[in-house]
Amino acid sequence: MSTVTDTTPIAPPRKGLLSPTNKRRWENFKANRRGYWSLWIFLVIFVLSLFAEFIANDRPILASYRGELLFPVVIDYPEEKFGGFLAETDYRSDFITEEIEANGWMIWPPIRYSYSSTNSNIPHSAPTAPFWLMSKEERCAGYPAGADDPNCNLSNLNWLGTDDQARDVLARVIYGFRISVLFGLALTICSAVVGVTAGAVQGYFGGWTDLLMQRFIEIWSSMPVLYILLIIAAILPPGFWILLGIMLLFSWVGFVGVVRAEFLRARNFEYVRAARALGVGNATIMYRHLLPNAMVATLTFLPFILSGSITTLTSLDFLGFGMPPGSPSLGELIAQGKENLQAPWLGLTAFVVMSVMLSLLIFVGEATRDAFDPRKTFR
Amino acid sequence: MSAPETILSVRELSVAFHQGGNTSLAVDRVSFEIHRGEVVALVGESGSGKSVTANSILKLLPYPAASHPSGEILFKGKDLLKASDAALREVRGNDITMIFQEPMTSLNPLHSIERQIGEILKLHQGIEGAAARTRILELLNQVGIREPEKRLAAYPHELSGGQRQRVMIAMALANRPELLIADEPTTALDVTVQAQILELLKNLKEEHGMSMLFITHDLGIVRKFADRVCVMTKGKIVETGPVEEIFSNPQHAYTRHLLASEPRGEPRPADDSQPVVVEAEDVKVWFPIKAGFMRRVVDHVKAVDGIDLKLRAGHTLGVVGESGSGKTTLGLALTRLISSKGRIAFVGQDIAGRTFAEMRPLRRRMQIVFQDPFGSLSPRMSVADIVAEGLKVHEPSLSEAERDRRVAAALEETGLDPSTRWRYPHEFSGGQRQRVAIARAMVLKPEFVMLDEPTSALDMSVQAQVVELLRDLQARHNLAYLFISHDLKVVRALANDIIVMRGGRVVEKGRAKDIIERPGEAYTKALMAAAFNLEAVGSEAISQ
Fold first, then answer.
1. How far apart are the C-alpha atoms of B483 and B490, rounded to whole Å?
2. Partners of A64 in the beta sheet?
3. 270-289 of A, contacting B, C-beta below 8 A
4. Cα–Cα distances in Å, from B177 out to A110, B94, B124, B137, B204?
5. Measured by CB atoms within 10 angstroms of the end CB, which terminus of chain A is less buried, N or C?
6. B449 - beta bridge partners?
7. Which one of A270, A291, A295 would you mutate to disrupt binding with B, by most B Cβ within 10 Å of its Cβ?
8. Nearest-CA residue of chain A relative to B335?
9. What are the E-state strand segments in chain A?
């Protein structure tokens, strides 16, 4: 080893976030302009919707009352603090507003409605149209002082109208978008983890393991998923986590086929055999040598699973078997649009939001797939 | 061959490939001629453009990604590059035919032999039915397929590699072509089969008065077989001339380099006082054949059937034999990557019954280098990660910097620049990749290395370098090598002892020198004759 000990000073290991492969992938991703822009648009909308409480809420972000700084968005203050009697303060009521304004100030979010708050000053019976479809007199007809009422301002008016319970559609759409995307992401990630693990184990070990799990999956995937969902939804109280759990039971199967095939193909590669000869354990081989092969196939699937799970949640909500009543949901909005054909803004809003969201996700998914395709070259 | 008539004349031919806005010139203004009844060899290493040149004669390249910026290909005075598609189809398979390297993938797996050959007869000569069958049998007889009547209904997977290549040749001969282009027709075959195929081609050429364009990287074949040689490198023909002239008096530096690149040198002298590293007694690997509804074991495929061997430190044991003789299986059994029966001892410890986990502490002391330098390196890991993988398993306590230093040292020892270690395998040439694979084995400082055809996938000149490197490493670290190869020239340069295997059993074993110079068994004799003289002798002793 004498020739080796005096090696030249060794270059430091690479630094930086991205390995060369990932850098190339990112370049490929960016080369798909549509997907790249879709990602940014989607991220902006999604991050904004994560802060929905600061954009659309029926309580102020910040308030000062008798010299005390209050954060009504995060902290629930009992109404007796302001001289009222309710357990939770209704900041939209004239009494509280006047009381706080008289002893301090309030900073409201741009939209003064939450997904559950009703507009008590609607000009006629709900649902009401977006304010810009009505004249000034018409839209302020519900306020005590009419068109001159100071409360008849942009943040109190309903940009996309109200639904049949006089709730602000825009606020509900913002909250509904957030819950849809979060649900879709959570379901996709969970089913990817379960599905990829199951597929990897089957493909890598093969033999009886593979045979038994394949038969199980065949039986499992031939179940009528929607009916089982309806039955379980009838027994268990509906909610985000319960729905997620029920749908996860069936959605992971989608990943198994592709991942299993990749592992079956790759487990006999010489570099896998070489790793075994080095004494590398099964789990490490699966993770380090085989999983990257299966990732491309998985990522090709992700956008479809993601948009699929969002659609499933929406359809369950539409049927009334989804999220508990009152929660913001796009499916419920579509149902309202169907019930109230005289109020086309309900259906149209739901349609536009759904299609924009799903299109963006598919475009991003397409670009991701391109990015991971080693053979893809862009001019 | 009096008054040679030129049947093919390639003039100033260039081939360019366009990909993603880049244009690369694969063939650069190449000119050569083929006369009637002549064998012209196109010699060069991989990537030299010899196959591209051959494929452009029949316009088989992926147009329009490929294009010809200059040149003409005159076949009997007609320019094939300017010919219409219909005119080209007339020529293809009729006047000019091709045989390819991979007999497995060049035959349609879903068609029987009769149908494959019959299709060509029907297309170009309109022969069908009984007449076609007679002609097919005649062709199969010509190419030396035994019992051709029984083979008519066979599918490609039922034939051996040599038989498949014979069928390919039968297809190529079906329409009595004037020019046969053979693109490395024997590279994928065993040496004994290679000798038979070469002899067959030679006989057929003489019988039919065909011309041949023979593409190969093997200079031995050229010397034996060709009339004239064109030496190609980097897309250019650097030297052309009659075979004897080129071999006796090479003009160009590259030709001289090519001629000098045969693996040479002697193995290190044997020393029986060295400790035994691997000892095996009666090793058997039997794969069960199951049949029937209950999947009962009815028989066994005896891949390795009772092998004894002893390997001392600093020695090389060569395992030679045709493909399917159980060489690799034996190597995998000795390194405990597949289960086997019989006693296997490694540095005095019995390892035959050990589980994978129990083997792990010993893994660092026994390493493997595989045949295919493309397949044995994970394409998604950098070279540094590939080499460091074993260290992470066996010496997890090493610091990052120390590990990196060891990796760099191993790469340097195998003749690679350590500063390239953040690159990925696809950025390296075949020879460099094989060096990475060797570095991966060496970084753990093993005592025993199993080399499974480590040079077979490499070019001739690279082979010689790798052999040199292996010998060097062996001398430095007193390594024991189990060298599995079908290439007896390489084995001769490395091995102290040789085991000749056939059908899982030992045909002959002993000192390498004795076996190569004075083979005792008929099979060994045939193997040696095929490997060193490209002669098919005692064809009853070897498989077809």
1. 10
2. A69, A105
3. 270-271, 273-281, 284, 288-289
4. 85, 6, 11, 18, 11
5. C
6. B367, B481
7. A270
8. A277
9. 62-65, 68-70, 104-107
Phi, psi of A301 (to 5 degrees): -80, -30
What is chain B's percent helix, strand, coil content, to nearest 5? Answer: 40, 25, 35
Please say whether the dihedral angle defined by the alpha carbons of residues B446, B451, B456 and B461, taken in this order, is positive or negative: positive
Q: pLDDT tens digits, residue range B318-332?
A: 998 887 788 888 988
Relative to beta strand B366-369, strand B448-452 is parallel
**How far apart are alpha carbons A103 and A68 in whole angstroms?**
10
A277 and B394 within 8 Å at the Cβ level: the answer is no
The alpha carbon of residue B89 is apart from the nearest alpha carbon of chain A, in Å, by 32
Give the integer Cα–Cα distance in Å for B159 and A156: 83
In contact, B181 and B58? CB cutoff 8 Å:
yes
* Concatenated DSSP letters of A226-271: HHHHHHHHHHSPP-HHHHHHHHHHHHTHHHHHHHHHHHHHHTTSHH
Helix (H, G, I), strand (E, B) or coil at A153: coil
Q: Does A196 reach chain B within 8 Å, measured CB to CB? A: no
Whether residue A269 and residue B384 make contact (CB cut-off 8 A), yes or no, is no
As given in the structure block, the two tokens for residue B303 are 């891949």
Tokens encoding A307 = 């948009």
- pLDDT by residue (tens digit) across B124-136? 888 888 888 998 9
For residue B281, list its beta bridge partners: B343
**CA–CA gap between residue B398 and residue A268 (Å, rounded):** 30
ipTM: 0.70
| pLDDT band for position B21 (cuts 50, 70, 90) | low
Q: Are B424 and A292 a contacting pair at CB < 8 A?
A: no
Asked if B393 has any chain A CB less than 8 Å from its own CB, the reply is yes
Nearest 5°: the CA angle A109, A114, A116 is 170
Residue B415, chain A, CB below 8 Å: the answer is no
Task: State the Cα–Cα distance between residues B122 and B100, nearest whole angstrom.
Answer: 22
**CB atoms closer than 10 angstroms to residue B132:** 20
Choose the closest CB to A278 out of B363, B372, B409: B363
Q: Is A131 helix (H, G, I), strand (E, B) or coil?
A: helix
The amino acid that residue B249 corresponds to is N
Q: Does A59 lie at the interface with B, CB-CB under 8 angstroms?
A: no
Name the band, by pLDDT with cuts 50, 70 and 90, for residue B288: confident
- Provide, as residue numbers in chain B, all residues whose Cβ is less than 8 Å from the Cβ of A20: 382, 422-424
Task: Determine the Cα–Cα distance for residues B21 and B135; give it in Å rounded to an integer.
Answer: 49
The residues, ordered by sequence, that sit 6+ positions from B140 with a Cβ below 8 Å of its Cβ are B113, B117, B148, B151, B152, B166, B167, B170
Distance CA A60, CA B159 (A): 83
Cis peptide before B269 (omega within 30 of 0): no
Contact B390 A279 (CB under 8 A): yes
